[in-house]
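User: Hi! I'm a student and our assignment asks us to look at how structure tokens line up with a sequence. Could you show me two examples?

Assistant: Happy to help. In each example below, the sequence comes first and the structure tokens follow. Example one:
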Amino acid sequence: EVELPSSDQIMIRHQFRQVEVRLDQWMELAAATLAGAAGNVSVVTAPRLPTARLRHVELIALQPRLGLLILVTSEGSVRQVMCHWPEETEQETLSPLADALVHDLRGLAADEVAGRAEGAFGLARFVLEQIGLALRGLDAAERTEVRHSGLELMLAQPEFAGAAGEAQALMALLRGGAFLNAVLPSLGLDAGPGVRVFIGDENPAGELRRFGVVVSTYGVDGEVTGVLGVVGPTRMAYGRSISSVRYMARLMSDLMSDLYSA
């Protein structure tokens, strides 16, 4: 297997140490870094999660009966909810309650939090119910976040010079869930991580058959799975693209593992 040069690996890891521990920032940096390393368009999708699980809660008093619930999930998603407290409440009450909830609820999903709410009373019950609703809302949000970078690199190549219409069609495919829906059936997620290469007519989507595609899954223990890859001309330097995708998938998997074990 061709590996990315060690100097490139060190530089990439250094870049990731400079950003906050947030999934969206990792995705942005992964897309930009992968595009630069491979010299083509990159695409990085957010991992698909089985359920949203609580990592942290903050409760902030704004007015005597009005406050803010800030919820952070295991994957780093943040949701803010305006709350009308059932009674007048000060920050001195909210802060220790939030600390206790973080201790008791870390790692729990919506249904588990709802179960805790049934045995609670007053303000604690109200907050537990709000947390459960927020987690359910995150579970119900069937959106696939996608980041891409490097369109200018591909358009600078002879095959695509002046092909603005084709570039727009490719971008439309990469946005949203279309790219993911096109490649997922061909990736064989149950087979575990690994780089897959599709050249021309081998591509599962008709819109991709003018391109070469190098993709891999990344994630944690087969439960949290995202996709990242490179799209370029069929004559692209596959050795460089494969080594770049393989290394970035490994790095993103390590980062996700650290995030979920925190």
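Example two works the same way, sequence first and then tokens:
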Amino acid sequence: MSISAFENFYTEWLEEMKHRFKRLRAALQQTSFVEEEGIFNLVQSCHSHYHMYMSEKIRLCKEDLSFVIAGMWRSPFEASFLWIGGWRPTTAIVLAYSLMGTQIEGELQKLLQGIELPSMAALSAKQLSMIDALQQKLRESEDSLSNRLAILQMLFADQQMAKAAAANPPPSESNDFSDFREAMEPKLASLRDIFAEAEQLRGETIQEMLRILRPIQAGQYALAAYEMTMAVQKLGDKREGRAQLQALVHVSRSNIRELASQGNVDLLTKALQSGLDPSETDYDGRTPLDSGTELCKAAAIGNNAYLSRLAKYGVDPNVSDYGKPTPLHAAAAGGNTEAAQVLVKEGADVLAKDRE
């Protein structure tokens, strides 16, 4: 499955999940007698639909593991709370106890009167014992997976990786990452296994909790988990929207030359679309495409191909930047002998001064 196919699947899946939980909520809110069998069927419907989502994640991780582990279809706010590509299984236990506590507060009078309640407030001693046993099992499993992940992360700096980083030419100056890919393959395979086991643990946790709870309790529990998930998702979307708005405000307050000098094409495009003048000059009368600035920048960062093109199309190799340095000074300061050779060949003055 491709990333685009998964994103389309997720959009449709989420809409269907909303409809299923809407029906579950309506059934739980019935003021008359609530039929346990009907609630059970609705909970199973939601559970089977969620299982479909988990299966698609497993399929996608074979194609793009990092996309799944990072939860890149989520907002950054949501993704920051992930544990190995999803929710931490013991969260399910905490939710059960939290629901029990909040419902006891609301139904205390009925409980004191001995009225039998089907809600999370009335978890039996046997149910609590089973939940406690599940919690102990989950802690051990989580610790094991977390330790394996920690070891894998440390192995990112093992001898094979260090040897690949010491290749000649070094990775920073080469597009050949074959040694790195070879070193990473077993680590990615291990990470894929860890994710698959974490996802399986999440699935088993849901299944076990639904087995422990009575139908109405399971309905209340599933609905609470869904509402918490949706709340985090919506909060993340709002935070992301604010961040994008702040970025646009920053663009509108920035001058076009500053954005051009940063080399951020996306922000520069947005700035031009918002109406900033591409010919705007600064206090020294320079535009975003000032030739002296471009030549000096190319010489300083070692973009020799760009430097050659500028010189080829007639840009004066002796033109200076703000502080009066010429491109040759910039190349010399950066130790870029190749750029210096290009400039001298194009007629740069080796005796030019960068100060008065």
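Here is something you could point out in your write-up. The chain has three domains: 3-152+202-249, 256-288, 290-356.
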